[in-house]
Each structure stands twice: as C-alpha cells, then as structure tokens.
C-alpha cells in the first residue's frame, strides 16, 4: 500500500537489522522502498540490498556532503546505473548548510559533482534524486543548464519555499515529503504540501534519521512512512487511502517500477 521513496538501509544504524526492518514494513503495509546511495564506496552494499530483496530498489550517486570519497565521472556513473535494479541517479545536489568555514564560492567541487550527476541522468534517462539545502538557486540553475529539459526526478526531503517547489514542478520534478512534515513547527512546509499537486507528491522516511511524529527523535525506518502519508492526507483533506495509492503510483511512474499486481502479485 505504501512506498518509502528514500531510505538508507545500508547506514550503520540499520544495516544489521534489515530482516527486522522488512518485517516491520510488512506489518505497516509498506510494500516497497528505494535504498539511496551516498558514495560509490557504499554502492555495493546498497546494490546488494536491492538485488537480494524483491521489494527493494536502489540508486547510484554521491551525496553533496560526502567528502574525501571517490569522485565518479559520467562514464562510471552510467556503468553502475545500468546494473539491474538501479532505478535512479543520486542522491545528488547541493548543500550549503554546513560550509565549515568555507565560502559558497569554495564549494565549486560540489557544483561540479552535481553537474556530472545531471549529465549522467540525462544520458541514461533515469530520474535524479536531488538533495538541496540552503542552495536552491544554484540547484535549479544547474538543473536548467545541464538537464536540457529532459531530466526528471524528485526533490527529496523537501523543506524549501513554495517558490522553489513551483520551480521544481515547472522543471517536471516531483516533490517528496519526509517526517519533517509532521513536526510541530513545520506549518510553512505543510502549506507547501497543500499546494503541490497530489500527482507530483512522493513520501519518504530518509531513515535512519528524521523519524516522524509520534516517533520523533527515535531510530527511523521505512515502516514509519505511513505517518508521513497520514499527515499529507490531513494537510490535503484527502482520504489516507487516496494519498497512499497516489504516492505509490507516482513512485512507480517516476522510477518505472511495475506495480505489485503487474509484477505478478498480489
Ligand atoms: Zn538528502
Ligand atoms: Zn538521503
């Protein structure tokens, strides 16, 4: 019924409890999850999750905050993206939130890394999983410059303004909401969620972090994505069932994943 469009099951907090995580998912009716890659070094373990479990898929990419790691070129990203069960490029993007004493100018390496990922997505036609924080102008500019109007994807864990959401929607992107949507002080974000058309909304946990209310502060896992769906349903004044189905169908369409029935379910 539900899909977690963004989780990190290969992170130390979750990687030794994948069986437990998958049982909790089944109990919470979270059928599927997308395991997100943050470094090329991590890719083999993210990919193993996706090839080893029929309800998990994965991406390939280097997170903007990953430093001192292998820097792939377009060709290397394309080779990894062509592997089975890799359905997206990312997570990638820009993050100027923690500059650690550097200027935005000095973050040129991040912008170059992002450009390489957009070029790879454009070349292979897979959707981009975009992470942007305190850097929306540059993120949008690079997507426009490198995307050539053909790159699609999702702005994940969205916390930006309505203007940024509109720009992302205009570029053909989806907007994904995490547990932050449920936080008490997130009224502005809930207003954005109210305005984003349901057919462009995704839901995610970004686990192991950002557990939604009522589990805020605890270890997060894909089994908690229904709390995000419930909040989105409340914000949009829709039935939970409607939001669950729409966000699952949006996920299938964007990442070209067959629905469980098409795949020979139920
Ligand atoms: Zn992210
Ligand atoms: Zn993430």
Order of helices and strands: EHHEHEHEHEHEHEHEHH
Distinct small molecules bound, one entry per kind: zinc ion
**Proportion of β residues?**
15-25%
Q: Helix/strand-derived class? A: alpha/beta
**What gross morphology would you assign?**
globular
Task: Supply Rg.
Answer: 17 Å
- The DSSP helix count reads 10
Mean pLDDT figure: 96
Number-wise, the strands total: 8
Biggest sheet, spatial arrangement of strands: 1-2-3-4-5-6-7-8
Q: For the report, how would you describe the main beta sheet? A: 8 strands, parallel
State the distance separating the first and last CA atoms.
Answer: 11 Å
Helicity level, as a percent range? 40-55%
Please identify the oligomeric state: single chain
Low-confidence stretches: none
Question: Care to describe what's here?
Answer:
The chain is α/β, with parallel strands linked by helices and 266 residues long. It is 40% helix and 16% strand. The protein contains ten helices and eight strands. The protein has helices at 12-15, 18-27, 43-52, 74-81, 108-124, 136-147, 162-170, 187-195, 225-236, 240-255, and strands at 2-7, 30-35, 56-60, 86-95, 128-133, 153-155, 174-177, 201-203. Strands 1-2-3-4-5-6-7-8 form an eight-stranded parallel beta sheet. α5 runs parallel beside α6 and α9 crosses α10. The radius of gyration is 17 Å and the shape is globular. The structure holds zinc ion (2 copies). One zinc ion binds at residues 6, 8, 36, 91, 206.
Question: Helix and strand layout, with pairings?
Answer:
Elements: E1 2-7, H1 12-15, H2 18-27, E2 30-35, H3 43-52, E3 56-60, H4 74-81, E4 86-95, H5 108-124, E5 128-133, H6 136-147, E6 153-155, H7 162-170, E7 174-177, H8 187-195, E8 201-203, H9 225-236, H10 240-255
Parallel strand pairs: 1-2, 2-3, 3-4, 4-5, 5-6, 6-7, 7-8
């Amino acid at each position: 019924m539900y899909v977690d469009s963004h989780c990190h099951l290969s992170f130390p907090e979750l990687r030794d409890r994948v069986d437990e995580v998958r049982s909790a998912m089944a109990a919470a009716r979270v059928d599927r999850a997308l395991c997100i890659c943050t470094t090329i070094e991590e890719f083999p373990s993210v990919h193993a999750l996706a090839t080893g479990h029929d309800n998990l898929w994965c991406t390939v990419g280097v997170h903007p905050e990953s430093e001192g790691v292998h820097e792939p070129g377009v060709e290397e990203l394309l080779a990894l993206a062509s592997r089975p069960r890799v359905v997206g490029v990312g997570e990638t993007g820009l993050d100027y939130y923690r500059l650690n004493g550097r200027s935005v100018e000095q973050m040129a390496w991040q912008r170059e890394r992002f450009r390489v990922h957009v070029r790879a997505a454009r070349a292979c036609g897979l959707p981009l999983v975009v992470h942007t924080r305190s850097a929306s102008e540059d993120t949008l500019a690079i997507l426009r410059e490198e995307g050539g109007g053909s790159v699609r994807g999702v702005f994940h864990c969205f916390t930006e303004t309505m203007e940024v959401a509109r720009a992302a929607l205009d570029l053909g992107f989806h907007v994904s909401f995490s547990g932050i949507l449920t936080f008490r002080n997130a009224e502005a974000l809930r207003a954005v969620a109210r305005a984003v058309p349901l057919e462009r909304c995704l839901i995610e946990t970004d686990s192991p972090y950002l557990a939604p209310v009522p589990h805020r502060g605890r270890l997060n896992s894909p089994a908690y994505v229904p709390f995000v769906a419930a909040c989105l349903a409340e914000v949009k004044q829709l039935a939970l069932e409607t939001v669950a189905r729409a966000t699952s169908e949006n996920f299938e369409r964007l990442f070209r994943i067959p629905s469980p029935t098409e795949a020979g379910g139920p």
